[in-house]
Amino acid sequence: MGRGHNNRGLFSPETSGTIGLGGSKPSIVSRLGDLSDRKFFCCLLPYSSKVGKSSKLNFGQKASFQAKDSSSTTEGNIIIDSGTALTFFPDASFSELATAFAAGVTGGKRVKDPSGFLPVCYNSTTESRIKNFQGLQFILGGPDVKLKRVNRFIRVAEGVICKPGGGDSAALYGNFAQMNFLVGYDLVKKTIPFKPTDCGKEEVT
């Protein structure tokens, strides 16, 4: 129920499995029917979180939230994907973003990703050493979704941090950008609200 038969990915030994949360009939959201109201939210912990804490996934009425600091979108020009780590932009847009980003950053020397995968990396162990970076925000309707420090860089090797994203043929909003945000999915209204949240709390609303 709500699962795949041939799932592939970069899963760790701690991964329990995968579930389908889309709008199609086989997904667990559709199978739950009225019990889920065809809505759910997830609140993803940062990868650096302490052992023993868990990300949150709620269905139905518990997945309803409205707040003045939340942003909601019904636009269809980007894929919101909790199963993909990185955020991708169309190639032309990412090229402009990377150029503007590099021009606005001082305090960290530009280096290559040892794996050769991520294009924007610096030789700093923490983002606090990178000066003049004004952050990154997404305009999704309502208040802009402003990425926090935990969303901006990932440590890929000793002394090397990278922006978790790159260029591609389509736009995709990955789970690094969703960490410590309450992200709701209403499959009836076809809206996806975002709300800055400490996902390490016992209760998130």
- The quaternary organization reads as single chain
Rg over alpha carbons: 18 Å
Helix/strand order: HEEEEEHEEEEHEEEEEE
Report helical residue fraction.
10-25%
**Given the C-alpha coordinates, what overall shape results?**
globular
Biggest sheet layout: 5 strands, antiparallel
Q: How does CATH name the architecture?
A: Beta Barrel
CATH top-level class: Mainly Beta
Query: Counting H and I runs of at least 4 residues, what is the number of helices?
Result: 3
Average pLDDT number: 80
* Total E-strand runs: 15
The structural class is alpha+beta
| Count of discrete domains | 1
Query: At the third CATH level, what is the topology name?
Result: Cathepsin D, subunit A, domain 1
Low-confidence stretches: none
User: What percent strand?
Assistant: 15-25%
GO molecular function: aspartic-type endopeptidase activity
Organism: Jatropha curcas (Barbados nut)
Pfam families: TAXi_C (PF14541)
Domain Peptidase A1: 1-195
